[in-house]
Amino acid sequence: MLKVQGINVYYGAIHALKELSIEVRQGEIVTLIGANGAGKSTLLKTLSGLLKPKTGSINFLDKSITGQSVQAIVKEGLIHCPEGRRVFANMSVEENLELGAYLQDSTSLPADFEKVYTTFPKLLERKKQQAGTLSGGEQQMLAMGRALMGHPKLLLLDEPSMGLAPLLVQDIFNIIKEVNAAGTTVLLVEQNAHQALKIAHRAYVLETGRVVLEGDAKELADSEEIKMAYLGH
User: Is 111 helix (H, G, I), strand (E, B) or coil?
Assistant: First the structure.
């Protein structure tokens, strides 16, 4: 579904991603783990068109999207739910969700709203409320709901559990599993490596802009090297 081959991405003189290659297959949850500054968020921004690779190629659904605009990439069904939620604070929950569907046919809006409100019942209760007044967990649900309104074929999720209370973290991971089971492929960046490896099919470990390990998520979770480096035991 997604094939990234040998991309190099720079922030000015800083070489952020180095000859990086990954693959995501239809129906999978693939997680990227690694320390802060390893290049995980940079990779998602590059896939969604916010950053352009200097060299290398990105193919999505057998079509090159290398260097394309954000809008063109969203149109193809590759949708990014960014780190830090980035909801529009002065707009209502419903207006935020509607913005997620700006490239969709308006006739599908009622069904899309229903789907999101079924997945996130809290958002239905808060639909007229300003997004800025929601709790952190509710804002994360809104950011994910807004991304789902765009009918993602591949959903890029950047740090969905960051800053959330432990109970809410579990809810968010359960929802990611449900979204995947309903047919959306997921590429997940997550500091909580333990939880991410629990729900993912496969994983890539990034260090200083390179892939240093890849494989079955369960096998990586059981690896002593990963336990020591990322799982705190």
Answer: helix
